[in-house]
Every structure is written in C-alpha cells, then in structure tokens.
Amino acid sequence: GAVVSQHPSWVICKSGTSVKIECRSLDFQATTMFWYRQFPKQSLMLMATSNEGSKATYEQGVEKDKFLINHASLTLSTLTVTSAHPEDSSFYICSATGTGGPLEQYFGPGTRLTVT
Amino acid sequence: GENVEQHPSTLSVQEGDSAVIKCTYSDSASNYFPWYKQELGKRPQLIIDIRSNVGEKKDQRIAVTLNKTAKHFSLHITETQPEDSAVYFCAASGAAGYNKLIFGAGTRLAVHP
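Predict the joint structure of the above. Result:
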C-alpha cells in the first residue's frame, strides 16, 4: 500500500517551453502533497506544500509564478515548470501523506528534467 | 526556520564494521525524525523513523537514537554490507507546518568488501 507514481520519469525540453509533471497517489487519498527538487549530489529541497482544493504554499525563494502547482483532487497533484531554463534541470520528487498517517511521507519515483 | 545539520558528509567503512551518522535540528517543536536511504536516481526509501516520545528504536541492523534535550538524533548501522552503500538523509518535521520535512545534507556511505 501507499504507492505514489510520477509521470513522466524523465523529460527533455527546450529552453523557454513549459513542462508538466504529474504526481498520483495510487491506493490512498493524499490530503497533502509535497514537491521537492534535488540537484546532483545535493539534498532534497522542499519547493512547496499543496493541499487538495487550496493554493499551494511555496518555500522562501521558490517562484510561484514559475513553478505552478495544482492539487485538484485527493489523488493528483501537478507541477508545471513554466518558461524552463537550463538551471531548472533537476530531479523533481513528489511525496504525499494520507488521511490515515499524519507523519510519514510516501515518495514518488522522481522526474528527471533536462532543459536544453 | 527549521534547520537540520548532518555529519559526516562521507563515510567509508569495511564490511562488517558499524556506521554512525549524526544529525542535529534547530526547532525543539520537531516531533518526527525519519531516515532515508537513496540510491542514485531513485526515490528516498524510508529505513527507520522515530517519534519524539521515544528515545531509541531498533530494526534488525539499524537503530536510531534521539536526544530531545540536545536536539540530536543518530543512525546506527551494524554489520554493514556492501549493499548498504548509498546516500543517507536524516529529516525532521512537525515544527514548521503540518508534516513538512526538512532534510539534512546527506551522508554518502561506502562499504568496502
């Protein structure tokens, strides 16, 4: 149980274009989803927290107009990187917490974004 | 805001030896401390966690200790095996927002046969 999927697993896009990444909880309802970014050989940095049906809360230094987060249902959250640039190339990982477990986060497999 | 420091950044041990990774956190309101193992290009995998009302927890070769007064928690791996080689992250949550995890910088563990 508690499986989280992400799509796509990897994506290459051209500078200036937008990319959407999906995060789904497959067998539970995710009341809260989190988006992290991880650069090579670095730690996971929380970008934003989203609750179903409400606006995402962004961490300091994360541009909310560049990283659009939508959490339209209890099983789906999306992250759209708008006007992507090479410095946005990174490993994006989502996680989710369910209604039954208040603390443990279940991580998706990650999406490797490369902007050329 | 909450800050988590992790040491050492790299750790090299011989197979069979023990490995210890230490973390400190800044916010005394933190109440949940998970440890993750991450292999290259993969998702973080929860290996053990501890809540603030417990001082120690053990699961086979892995143990975690928590000192709330000093705001320290540590991961102990005994009888290390080559497959334990990975990057390990500590994290803390419960302080700044519901379930928000703040990660340490990570420890790259290498276990040599």
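The longest strand of chain B covers residues 86-93.
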